[in-house]
TrEMBL record:
InterPro entries: Gfo/Idh/MocA-like_OxRdtase_N, Gfo/Idh/MocA_oxidrdct_glycsds, Gfo/Idh/MocA_OxRdtase_bact_C, NAD(P)-bd_dom_sf
Listed name of the protein: Gfo/Idh/MocA family oxidoreductase
Residues annotated as domain Gfo/Idh/MocA-like oxidoreductase N-terminal: 38-164
Top-rank taxon: Bacteria
Organism: Sphingobacterium hotanense
Domain Gfo/Idh/MocA-like oxidoreductase bacterial type C-terminal: 204-421
Amino acid sequence: MNRRKFISSTVLGAAAFTILPRHVLGGNGFIAPSDRINLGYIGVGKQVGTLLRGHMALPETMIVAAADVDSSKLNRFLENANKANAEKSGHQVQGYKDYRELLRRKDVDAVIIASPDHWHALHVVHAAKAGKDIYCEKPLALSIDEGRAMVDAVRKYKRVLQTGSMQRSYYNFRQAADLIRNGYIGDIKEVNVSVGEPVKECDLPWLEAPAHLDWDMWVGPSLYRGYHPVLSPLLDAKEWAMWRLYHGFGGGYITDWGTHMFDIVQWALDMDHSGPVSFTPPDQANAKEGLYYTYKNGIKVHHKSWGKFNAIQFLGTEGKIEVSREFLTSDKENLPKLVIPEKDRKVYYSENHYKDFVDAIKKRSKPICDVEIGHRTATVCNAINIAYQLQKPLKWDPRKEEFDNAYANNLKTRPYRGTWDYRDF
């Protein structure tokens, strides 16, 4: 063998070694480079602890980067992420203030987005454009048009997106959905959803932002307002950030807890790729509950307190089912633990929302809460807020994604500040 052939053979051999599947290399938990999924985290506040534990419990994952505009939260996350990596590879995690620097890294395979809701659309669109797969916290979008743009971007760049509606991977909700879809309580006539109040205007005073927080970047595409710790609490604050309650940053409890509970309604009623046809708010001004929406088949879903909080009550012609994270009950005693027969029509099965995301990445398939599903649920919640805001009944076309009212259609999007543009993909 001459020198050129020797070098060529050696290089090819080395390259082949790096893409051998892990079972060829002897098992024992070893993950070959080709099997590793490198993660970047965008937004590392309180919610990220749950996501870090969930994703890093999987053997395939490793963290390579993280981004946040709050340096104190970013530094804490880097410390925890490096500890999580140490049990696998010892790879050191790089931190960034600007998420766009993270997205430029070629070694980031997927991003975990846990930023405030007003950033979701830009983070998802830019991640898809950069060729990253995406796990995005719920609610997927803060406006209806943002959600459709996110679907279009994910589809255009052929990415996998899992919405963080992890209740679909819980037994209680999966069992309820299977029972309802297969008629175990007859035909559904009414659904009652108990979650908190709609979005409200932000009247917090403007304060000076701490030095570790780039407040202008935190506000990002939303209309500017001054800092307040209720919107972005300090590192060790026990309370959750309440940006989620205020117009321009969140959608109130309608989108915060509502995207969990109305999502299960969509799932159980087999409406994942459609939605209601009308929204009817109560007559009184500044109402906190009382709205109902209606599907084409006549089923009405009420936003009201019915005795249990953050929970759903399904009323059928032959019984009822009540479900939350803590309980699954029915007036038919055998239903909560009934083994659903194989012949019945079953919903997508997942016991681990994070593993389902990683499996979808490897198979290039749609996960249990694909981008379209996340968008449709967020649309229901955003439309509820619009109806409460306008105080008038609205008809909705779930195919065209349009209201019968010009003012309502104007509220399908929201003003963006500066040069930010979620449609640029």
